[in-house]
Design goal:
Oligomer: single chain
Number of strands: 58
Radius of gyration: 55 Å
Distance between the termini: 165 Å
Strand content: over 45%
Structural class: mainly beta
Number of helices: 1
Shape: elongated
């Protein structure tokens, strides 16, 4: 850096001095003892342009400093007249005049150069009651110049300490050294105090009577910081969040800030620009809580490191608390769980936390639209309780409403001194379940999503099934009031606060759970859940008869049939499947007379109902639950009266035949010696025994009137007994005709007779079919041999 000062005296003209300075730096000029400051005399400085001197500062104020922008006129601590021009730029170059009214004035030619050596600015942080050093290097041209440190005080500047070339010097707690070998001079401040903070100029000074010119090499911002508490360790967990409260009981601090240390220093602070409002900045948000005299910090993206939360006491003095953030991995934490409940009901949530923090205060909070997890303290709405199992506590939300939907966090709170923090361990997505929507194949269906008025301008989404995984994707999104995608169309009624989705030409694959969501920041919040159940077009008609069995075959589309749920329920409405109407399912494949079997390769499951009853008639639903989707097929079962009446008639016939047979035997034993005769006109057949001639027979006709009077079905029984030894040529024939009703088919009955000791050795009973509606019973026996 070169500073050239030229002083010229020309008769009749004002003397002029050349001053060389550097862009970005400052220049300070002071007068000698003959040009002292006078508070009662007007001061001025002007710049020549076009032959006239345009005023920059002109003041009659009786004070020790006047300024305009970057230009200042002031009284130095020695009482001399001083000029300060800061933050120079090339446009500041030119000819200036300054002075005290008509007492005196001086002119300078200011040149502003750009040089890498000079004009730089730097920040130095010193710790309270510690030593701090500020170093400035210089070029060879300045080896023989005096080295100075000036300090800015408002709009004036005064020297703090100086030294001759290559010398050392001490002034109170300030100490300066000039190392000519390194071209470096250094100022050290012992036992740094708060008032030592500020802006310093380091540079060299030259002078030519009566002006001393100081040009800066560097501008140094010295900050005095005070660590008011030992370091606090804050523990978070991978995938979680941290809410930290940093208390500073200082009244009316200038500002609150957070910064992350790098190599022991805090190169960049993040300040709260507003009070009592959250302010987002990258991976964290800040809140200046004036009532609590604290700084709230919400870490969304956990990063290990050392942080400082502090306050600025003044522009160059700060107090801070040091926080070491560590991020651990624990099986308990970082989980995302989803729970849903119905409006008006109670929802219970299980929250995990590290067992080592069992004694810590439990915490439950809800994210707002800025993704800040806010404390919730609604009386009677939420309750927290410790679980008997270590590392677990439960949260109960009563009387659910639509506004309870959202993202919550479980956590534990820890406090140490003026630092308290809550480590949020588990993310909980709570959705409200609305009434199920039923769609029929081929028809259209609407899904309605009411939302809070604060989300009117937010983008809306509808997501199907897996909406809380990394593979989730919106089925359809809305960024205007209307949108359409293939069979799906959406409409947002901002006035009513309802976002609706219409599905045309419903298919079985559309069945499933749909989630309504809104975008909050860069996060999609799914808040409402609706299940769409699809009923197939096909309606099964199944017929069966009482006392018999029937099978109902139901097809399904599930890709993993072994794990999908299948069931049959009964009821006129589909809702009966949710109200105890399930008769049998794949989980319990046999219930009373109902059983279920699955043919996975064929994609069919079969429900068998045994011992059918008339009350089994009605509407059934074949149900298939596949990955949360419910698909139904309507079934109509018709049960008619079965073969039970024919069986009853058959049994009656058998009993009648037994009675007739018994009567015949009794009559035979009583009349076989007395009765002989020819056959009656109704005789159908007489079976002759060896050596026995036809004999007279008794005839008896039995008509069954019952409930079938028009029936012409007949049963005949022919009995042919043999004669005994005393009456060989006589036989007794007895005929019985039984008129029975017609039935849908023939009935056959076999009757067995027990022989008594006097019966012939050879006797048979046979039923011979003559046509499709008549049964014959023939009883034969051969005569007993003498």
């Amino acid at each position: 850096m070169k500073i050239i000062i030229t002083f010229c005296l020309i008769t009749g003209l004002v003397s002029s001095t050349n001053v060389i300075s550097y862009s970005g730096g400052s220049v300070i000029m002071t007068m000698g003892d003959r040009h002292r400051w006078s508070s009662h005399t007007p001061k001025y400085i002007c710049k020549f342009a076009g032959g006239a001197c345009k005023t920059v500062i002109q003041s009659t104020a009786q004070n020790d400093t006047v300024f305009e922008g970057r230009f200042s006129l002031y009284e130095s601590k020695q009482g001399h007249f001083g000029v300060l021009i800061r933050e120079l730029n090339p446009q500041d170059a030119g000819k200036y005049r300054f002075g005290l009214a008509n007492n005196w004035n001086r002119e300078i030619n200011l040149k502003v150069h750009h040089d890498a050596c000079c004009g730089m600015s730097m920040t130095v942080v010193g710790h309270l009651n510690k030593d701090v050093s500020i170093s400035c290097d210089y070029t060879v041209e300045h080896k023989r110049t005096w080295k100075y440190f000036y300090k800015l005080k408002g709009h004036s500047a005064d020297w703090v300490i100086f030294t001759m070339p290559g010398k050392n010097h001490k002034e109170n707690q300030f100490y300066i050294t000039d190392d000519n070998r390194l071209n470096l001079f250094t100022m050290t401040i012992r036992e740094l105090k708060e008032e030592d903070g500020g802006v310093y100029f380091c540079g060299t000074q030259t002078w030519e009577y009566p002006i001393k010119v100081f040009s800066t090499i560097k501008t140094v911002h010295l900050h005095v910081t005070d660590k008011v508490q030992s370091s606090v360790r804050v523990t978070g967990f991978l995938g979680g969040r941290i809410m930290m409260k940093c208390r500073h009981p200082l009244e009316n601090p200038k500002a609150r800030f957070l910064c992350r240390e790098l190599e022991g220093e805090c190169p960049e602070k993040t300040y709260t620009n507003v009070q009592n409002e959250w302010q987002q900045n990258g991976g964290f948000s800040l809140y200046d809580d004036t009532s609590g005299k604290s700084l709230m910090v919400f870490f969304r993206n956990l990063t290990e490191g050392t942080y400082r939360c502090g306050v600025d006491v003044s522009d160059f003095t700060e107090q801070y608390r040091e926080v070491n953030v560590e991020v651990k991995e624990d099986p308990c934490c970082g989980k995302i769980i989803s729970q849903a409940g119905y409006i008006g009901e109670t929802l219970t949530i299980s929250c995990e936390h590290p067992p080592t923090l069992r004694a810590s205060l439990k915490h439950f909070c809800k994210e707002d639209e800025n993704l800040i997890c806010q404390d919730i303290r609604a009386a009677g709405k939420y309750s927290l309780s410790d679980h008997s199992q270590p590392g677990l506590f439960t949260v109960t939300i009563s009387n659910l409403t639509l506004s309870d939907a959202g993202v919550y966090w479980c956590g534990v709170e820890t406090s140490e001194g003026h630092i308290s923090y809550t480590s949020l361990t588990t993310r909980v997505q709570i959705s409200i379940i609305t009434s199920k929507v039923i769609g029929h194949e081929g028809d259209a269906v609407e899904i309605r999503c009411p939302y809070d008025s604060k989300y009117k301008q937010n983008s809306k989404h509808v997501c199907k099934d897996e909406c809380f995984t990394e593979h989730s994707d919106s089925l359809i999104a809305q960024r205007t009031t209307q949108n359409k995608t293939e069979r799906f169309s959406v409409h947002d009624d901002i006035t009513a606060g309802v976002f609706s989705v219409n599905i045309s030409r419903v298919k079985a694959v559309d069945a499933g759970r749909y989630w309504c969501g809104v975008e909050t920041g860069d996060v999609l919040m799914n808040y409402l859940s609706t299940e769409l159940q699809v009923v197939r077009k096909e309606v099964l008609q199944v017929f069966g008869r009482e006392t018999l069995s029937v099978s109902i075959e139901c097809s399904y589309r599930g890709e993993s049939p072994e794990s999908d749920g299948k069931f049959l329920c009964m009821g006129q409405q589909l809702a009966s499947c949710d109200k105890g109407g399930v008769k049998v399912s794949s989980e319990k494949n046999r219930t009373g007379r109902f059983s279920l079997s699955n043919d996975a390769p064929a994609g069919v499951f079969t429900v068998t109902i045994t011992d059918l009853r008339e009350e089994d008639s009605g509407t059934y639903w074949c149900g298939e639950e596949s990955l949360g989707s419910s698909i139904y097929t309507e079934v109509h079962l018709h049960v008619s009266k079965g073969p039970g009446s024919s069986v009853l008639i058959t049994v009656c016939v058998c009993i009648t035949l037994l009675l007739i047979g018994a009567s015949a035997l009794i009559l035979y034993r009583l009349k076989h010696k007395e009765t002989q005769g020819s056959s009656s006109s109704n005789r159908t057949d007489v079976t002759k025994s060896d050596g026995v001639s036809p004999a007279a027979c008794d005839y008896e006709e039995v008509n069954h009137s019952g409930q079938y009077p028009d029936s012409d079905t007949s049963v005949y029984m022919n009995t042919s007994p043999s004669t005994n030894s005393s009456d060989k040529n006589k036989a007794t024939c007895i005929y019985y005709t039984v008129q029975l009703p017609k039935d849908e088919g023939p009935n056959y009955t076999t009757v067995s007779f027990q022989k008594n000791s006097d019966a012939p050795k050879s006797s048979t009973v046979a039923f011979i079919k003559e046509d499709s509606s008549t049964e014959y019973a023939t009883v034969k026996h051969r005569p007993r041999q003498e």
